Amino acid sequence: MYQKKIPELLDCGLSVAIKVVGGKWKAWVIDCIRRGIRRPSAIHREMQAVNPRIVNLHLKELEELGIIYKEIFAEVPARVEYRLTPVGMSILPVMEALEQWGNENKEYVNRHQAGYAPGNCALLQETN
Q1: Residue-range definition of the domain harbouring residue 32
Q2: How confident is the model over 48-74, as pLDDT tens digits?
Q3: How far, CA to CA in Å, does 14 sit from each of 18, 22, 48, 77, 87?
Q4: Which of 35, 88, 104, 108 to pair with 6, CA 20 to 30 A apart?
Q5: Per the domain annotation, does 121 fall within a domain?
C-alpha cells in the first residue's frame, strides 16, 4: 500500500475541507448524491467524462471519511446506494457558496487564466 512521504496535516480546518471536496471530481460525486443519483451505475452515467475507476476511488474515500455511507439492499442481484451522512449534508452550504463564487467570478478567472504563469503575482496586484 502506498504511504505518503509527508504526512497529511489535518489540524487545519481548511485542509480538512479541501480533503473532502478538493480534487477534480469529489464535489461532483457529492453533488450527484445530493441530487438523488445514488446508485454507482447512475453516478458513472452522470459522470461519463470520468473513468469509473476514479469515481469508485472517490466513493470509497468519501465513505472512509464518513461523508457518505453505502446502503446495501438484500436483493438478488444486490443493490447498492450511496447517501450523505449528517456530516456530508453539512458540507452542502460550503459547496453552494463555492458554486456561487465560481459563477460570479468564472469570466474573470477564464479571462486571466491564459495570462497566468507560476510566480506571476499580477492577479493579486489587480485586486488590491
Answers
A1: 13-90
A2: 999 999 999 999 999 999 999 999 998
A3: 6, 10, 30, 41, 16
A4: 88
A5: no
